[in-house]
Amino acid sequence: MKNPLFAFTVLMCLADTGKLAAEEPAPASLAALEANYAEDRAASLRRVLAKYVDELQSLEQSLAAAGDASGAARVRLERDRVLPSLGLPAVAAADADEFAAFEEGSDPPMPAVPSTVPADLGAILKSLLPGGTAASTAAGPAPATPGSAVPGRGAKQVLRMANAQLEGTYDPAFGFHYWSGGRSASWTLSDLTPGSYRLVLRYSCDEKTGGGKLSARFGSGKIELEVPSTGSWNRRRELVIGPFEIAGARADLILEPVKLSSSASYLMDLNALLVQPVAPPTGTGKP
Questions:
Q1: How many Cβ atoms sit within 10 Å of the Cβ of residue 153?
Q2: CA 17 to chain centre
Q3: CA-CA distance, 262 to 265, in Å (whole number)?
Q4: In this structure, is the dihedral angle defined by the CA atoms of residues 279, 281, 284 and 287, taken in order, positive or negative?
């Protein structure tokens, strides 16, 4: 360079500018913009992964119904790999004890952002495009319609939102967003023993932004009731509904909001519910 003094002066100015930029804190508006971007990105990622998990669930049910136990197991392993990205336990761990959803104790807070991102997120996104394949790790018949008959698991059955027929999109990371009115979740139960049953909902309901009236239809019976507050979306309680009289071995169960409270944005957050026979009174043979 022909003028070393000029070059030195320019370098010093650049150094001073960088030093000032490093010392001055970012404007509050920039920090807020970055936070909003991170929140929107995390929400979008959750929706994509939730859809992928739903499609894996449908494919697993289809393979199991077709008698392909090996294919269904491979799909379940794929779900186990993706579910932690939503802050949820793996399927195998959640179903190891069918009453895990009803254990006592405090619940962990809902995740604000996915804890991990699958390394092959690009392949997952591509699989969700029209003509894509839900799972590259297994092949089989077309996915079955969600909400198909749930096999009987003895006298009691635990039903999860992941196995329900849903009217609308469900994000398992923020389940209460689903219950905003005009929605329904339904299951078809098989291998029931005729008699009286009750429903035990494992739910949460914020005292300020949740609450309203819920409709529960099971078989030919229908009950409407107010959903009590649990204090916050992070605090879960059990709500008992019933009894319902079931005459046959197969019955539909449908839950849907009737009306939200005046100050509520959502009705509740429901993780799981228990279908439980009503014990007969002592000394009688009738339920």
A1: 12
A2: 49
A3: 9
A4: negative
Same domain as 164, residue 153: yes
**Which of 144, 164, 181 lies at the terminal end of a domain, its last residue?**
144
What is the spatial distance between Cα 73 and Cα 45, in angstroms, rounded to a whole number?
Answer: 25
The most distant pair of C-alpha atoms in the chain lies apart, rounded to whole Å, by 108
- Report pLDDT digits (tens) over 13-67: 555 555 545 556 667 778 888 878 877 777 777 778 878 877 887 787 787 777 7
The amino acid occupying position 45 is L
CA distance 236 to 231: 9
Query: Are 159 and 253 contacting, i.e. CB atoms less than 8 angstroms apart?
Result: yes
Asked whether residue 162 falls in the same domain as residue 270, the answer is yes
Q: What is the DSSP letter of 27?
A: P
pTM of the model: 0.50
Amino acid at 160: R
pLDDT grade, residue 97 (50/70/90)?
A: very low
Place of tokens 């507050």: 229
Q: Is 129 exposed, middle or buried (0-12, 13-18, 19+ CB in 10 A)?
A: exposed
pLDDT value for 46: 76
